[in-house]
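Complex 428.
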Amino acid sequence: MLALRFAAVFAAWCPVAAAQTIPINEDEASVPPYTLPDPLIFRSGRPVTNASSWSWRRTELLEQFGDHVYGRTPSGLPRRAATVVSIDRQALGGLATRKIVRVPLTRKDSGPYIDLLVYLPNGARRQVPVFLGYNFDGNHTVTTDPKVPLPRGWVANRPKSGVTDHRATEAARGSAAESWPITRILERGYGLATLYYGDVEPDYDGGWHVGLRGAVARGGTNHVFAPNEWGAIGAWAWGLSRALDYLVTDPGVDGRRVAVIGHSRLGKTALWAGAQDERFALVIANESGEGGAALARRWFGETVWRINTSFPHWFCGRFKDYNNNVSELPVDQHELVALNAPRPVYVASAEEDRWADPRGEFLSLKHADPVYALFGLPGVGVADMPGINEPVGGTLRYHVRSGKHDLTAYDWEQYLDFCDRHLKFPTQ
Ligand code: GCU
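Predicted structure with alpha-D-glucopyranuronic acid bound:
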């Protein structure tokens, strides 16, 4: 019934092309009602009653997200040891040890591989917790440190990057430093490990030919993807787990306290990585929007149709079946958040980032609360969205910051405080 009303509203907006396009709505009063799937009901209709039956439901949901949204991550991919390429024990004026670590992703040394950039605070008395997160334009953009090499492959020509032809340039060095307050992170007692997502797979439709998915596909670059084979977000998520494989072996890192963080499309990736790999101790999704924390069924900002049209390579083929009937999706994004239970999750929005649907991001957390309650943990715990710059919640935490779509110092301060509460041991 609700589904019918939803479809009727779309048809009224766009009578001719209703089957092809879904208009963008950014008016709260126009959001039609919707019914979310219940994370605590098995497909069979049986209820989940405790944390131990949740683990079965978790498996079921993971399979559904694989089959219908992100594609399944192939099993049996090679896992090879990483190599430390360089170490500088006096980086950033002596504050940190900087390592560059090559993480192979396939059997071939020629690639694809990740060059992981790791900063660990000098003088720590014990292994440190670490933030692990992808950067958008190359490791050299997060710092002005001249020793950090440029990525070798494709980079996007984003306005700020000074790139015009998809090759990384020196001009972009440090251009993303404001989003990566490395000194602050180190001073707060954390390490930072960052990696360039294009090392795993360039971000354009067809990028898989020169990325991880093409390198491991049975059909090579002629491969025809089945409807539930992984998309680029799946490949990037897998790359995060391989970076974690290295971090757990680094003598300076406490591998049980690695937080995975991502902004925007890389926030979607962080959530999917955390859902699949329970070694991530904590997950942070900054303005991850559609296909990330924002509820798919809520018609506000970016839609399933729009994201599948603009970025057809991000998700699996079957996700496109829901372009015009999102209510048929067997899952919604609150269940992606819930897949991380009982681990802490921070979801953040920005007031002006209406495209990412701040309220839809908040509601995902709120509707994941019942799963955290199974573990006796406080979820986000409030009835409605908090005001601007007023973080709320417990094990599930949320803020909507003033300003636009970005990863800012304000966001990092909240994440550092959250990690202090959840990742630092009382003795530290
Ligand atoms: C686009 C896209 C979003 C995505 C964002 C980003 O705006 O529509 O879904 O989150 O890019 O990754 O920057």
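The longest strand covers residues 253-263.
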